[in-house]
Amino acid sequence: MTETIKVLFLDRDGTINEDTGSYVATRPQLKLIARAGEAVALAKAAGFRIVIISNQAGIARGIATVEQVEDVNLYLNELLTEAGASFDRCYYCPSHPQHPHPEYDRFAGCRKPETGMVERAIADFKAEGLTVDRDASFFIGDKLIDVECGLRASLHPILVRTGHNEEEICRRLGVVPEFVADDLYEAVTAHILR
Ligand SMILES: [Mg+2]
Asked: Where is this site: Stabilizes the phosphoryl group (predicted)?
């Protein structure tokens, strides 16, 4: 027996937590964006599973370690849990095309805008007997690559104006999100749960 679920796929840096302009490698560098925890809690209460999808090429570049990235992800979940908004799954891609690495190059198909992490999440849910309804699921991020990833994976893509705010680049390249929100809270309240 399988259950059908809807998923809110979320970029991390610049969408849930402040983008520091560099890689977030330590706990003190991780600051939640205002009302982000509340937004995720509302989505969870409405029945969405929460999945983080994050490019973390700082690993291949030697700027951050796997241990640091995983510790920051753990800390993010601690902060979200305080807001009643813990995530269900979290995936990150360590590779970078300009920084070949013998250990991480095999993850190249995961780096957004590629959809490897989304497909992996959907397969992992499937292994638990949960079928993801893509048409009822969303991908929210602050960059062009997030919108592209959402589109390629047949999810509803939403761009947020926090972080890098690539609204102008998206428009110029004709990569059109379904909705543009000032922040994650607005994305959830004004569009997803409207
Ligand atoms: Mg981002």
From this structure: 54, 111-112
- Domain residues of the chain, as ranges? 3-192
* For ion ligand 1, residues whose CB falls within 5 Å: 11, 13-14, 142, 163
Provide the H-helix boundaries in the chain: 36-45, 66-82, 116-127, 144-152, 167-173, 184-186
11 belongs to the catalytic site: yes
Helix%, strand%, coil% for the chain, nearest 5: 40, 20, 40
> What distance in angstroms lies between residue 188's CA and the mean position of ligand 1's atoms?
17
pLDDT at site 133: 98
The yes-or-no verdict on residue 1 having pLDDT over 80 is no
Q: CATH number of the domain at 3-192, please? A: 3.40.50.1000
170 belongs to an annotated ligand binding site: no
Say if residues 57 and 96 touch (Cβ distance below 8 Å): yes
pTM score above 0.90: yes
Section 74-92 average pLDDT: 97
